[in-house]
Amino acid sequence: MTAPSPAPHKMSARDVSVFYGDNHAVRGVSIDIDMDKVTAFIGPSGCGKSTFLRTFNRMNDTIASARVTGEITLDGEDIYSPNMDVVQLRARVGMVFQKPNPFPKSIFENVAYGPRIHGLASSKTDLEGIVERSLKRAGLWEEVKDRLSDSGTALSGGQQQRLCIARAIAVDPEVILMDEPASALDPIATAKIEELIHELRGRYAIVIVTHNMQQAARVSQRTAFFHLGHLVEYGETDNLFTAPREERTKDYITGRYG
Ligand SMILES: Nc1ncnc2c1ncn2[C@@H]1O[C@H](COP(=O)(O)OP(=O)(O)OP(=O)(O)O)[C@@H](O)[C@H]1O
Ligand SMILES: [Mg+2]
After folding, report:
1. What is the residue range of 81's domain?
2. In this structure, is residue 55 part of a structural domain?
3. Does residue 50's CB lie within 6 angstroms of at least one atom of ligand 1?
4. Given Cys at both, which of 45, 49, 105, 165 links 138, Cβ 3.0 to 4.6 Å?
5. Where residue 118 sits, what CATH number does that domain have?
6. Amino acid 62: pLDDT
7. Is residue 3 part of a domain?
8. pTM of this prediction exceeds 0.90
């Protein structure tokens, strides 16, 4: 009899490196990402957090000088395999950026666009339902339900960011990658995004890059500390902040550098 296999991870990176020309920006990183958890990536500026995050939905493909080695899987499937449909991949592994980037279209269209191109709605009513559900889940519905035809760019920064989250949710992703999603927002809008991350956690695997260690401690269950392209330490957020195993982690969280 064979032993039962361990619970599968939603995504796994194995020995992943990223090069920009000669610059070896991410150095042999292995990590597992799981459903129902928020994983935070922290570390000093330039340590490779954004670069590594982008390997999870092949956003580095859009950067001509970038080259990725190693393996990344989604439900056990190699996402860099030639069989992988990248458009499909980016719907399954959605992304929210530092600067809110709504399309210059109506609030409704911002959310409806993805489900429409992916053929997720069978009718107009169905599409309207998806838009409403996504905006509700992103905590924006009450603020915009009477102005769905207004431009997405006319919203406040915090509202725009929640619109971008609604847009990511609308195509029914499994993983949501967030690169400093609140760093351009004021404290109230930031608190809303953090609250939202809490609520979304039960449905998705969420990975968030943040410069703010308090934020990492508030929103995540797991934290990965990066330094000079290396993953130095990865563990339960509480442990990493209270009892780091590595000297470099300790130096960083106590503010000695970064
Ligand atoms: N598009 C790019 N082209 C070339 N080099 C890049 C590019 N993006 C990042 N790099 C380089 O890769 C390294 C890691 O950068 P990255 O943006 O991933 O760091 P980061 O940890 O996200 O930093 P920050 O906290 O400032 O956002 C740096 O040396 C950076 O100069
Ligand atoms: Mg970055």
Report:
1. 11-253
2. yes
3. yes
4. 165
5. 3.40.50.300
6. 92
7. no
8. yes
